[in-house]
């Protein structure tokens, strides 16, 4: 029989508080051994998800991944965009995490360069500890550049995309 590390009431309350306070986080699915916690905000659209089991904590510290490079750029060939060009609106990472341009590996990207986007349209996900945070377009317009690389670490407030409009 496999032992599992159950969450305390305080742990669950803390996780639900994070879900409640996060604007971009619509749902939370956690599985620890036989324990499953699924929480969704009222009106949140169901996501196509793959169940992921959280491994037991290890004594070894996790090394941070290097910053994401611009897609197609040679290593060190292009400086990351830190300023927003005139006429553009930046979509920034709401937190440190992994950038995903698709809802699942089998599905197409939310948006591509040159695509028109509507206000509040989902454009990507940022995942932290198996919690997927929806990132939405702050304006309507056209995606001019996607600066983050699918599956790579992004920093808090890093520019992920530039929208013209």
TrEMBL record:
Pathway annotation from the record: Lipid metabolism; fatty acid biosynthesis
Gene3D superfamilies: 2.40.50.100
Keyword Mitochondrion: no
Residue ranges of every copy of the Lipoyl-binding domain listed in the record: 83-164
Annotated GO MF terms: acetyl-CoA carboxylase activity
Sorted UniProt keywords: Biotin, Fatty acid biosynthesis, Fatty acid metabolism, Lipid biosynthesis, Lipid metabolism
UniProt cross-references to Pfam families, sorted A to Z: Biotin_lipoyl (PF00364)
Protein's UniProt keywords contain NAD: no
GO cellular component annotations of the record: acetyl-CoA carboxylase complex
GO biological process, any: fatty acid biosynthetic process
SUPFAM superfamilies the UniProt entry points to: Single hybrid motif
Function: This protein is a component of the acetyl coenzyme A carboxylase complex; first, biotin carboxylase catalyzes the carboxylation of the carrier protein and then the transcarboxylase transfers the carboxyl group to form malonyl-CoA.
Official protein name in the record: Biotin carboxyl carrier protein of acetyl-CoA carboxylase
Organism: Ramlibacter tataouinensis
Source lineage: Bacteria, Pseudomonadati, Pseudomonadota, Betaproteobacteria, Burkholderiales
């Amino acid at each position: 029989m496999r032992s599992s590390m159950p969450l305390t009431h305080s742990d669950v309350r803390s996780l639900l508080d994070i879900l409640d306070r996060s604007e971009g986080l619509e749902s939370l699915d956690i599985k620890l051994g036989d324990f499953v916690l699924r929480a969704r905000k009222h009106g949140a659209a169901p996501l196509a998800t793959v169940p992921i089991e959280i491994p037991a904590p290890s004594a070894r510290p996790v090394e941070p991944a290097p910053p994401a490079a611009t897609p197609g750029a040679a290593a060190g060939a292009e400086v990351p965009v830190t300023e927003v060009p005139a006429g553009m609106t930046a979509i920034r990472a709401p937190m440190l995490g992994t950038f995903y341009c698709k809802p699942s590996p089998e599905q197409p990207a939310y948006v591509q360069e040159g695509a028109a986007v509507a206000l509040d349209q989902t454009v990507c996900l940022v995942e932290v500890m198996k919690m997927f945070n929806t990132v939405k377009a702050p304006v309507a317009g056209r995606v001019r550049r996607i600066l983050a690389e699918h599956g790579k670490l992004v920093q808090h407030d890093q520019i992920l995309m530039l929208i013209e409009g």
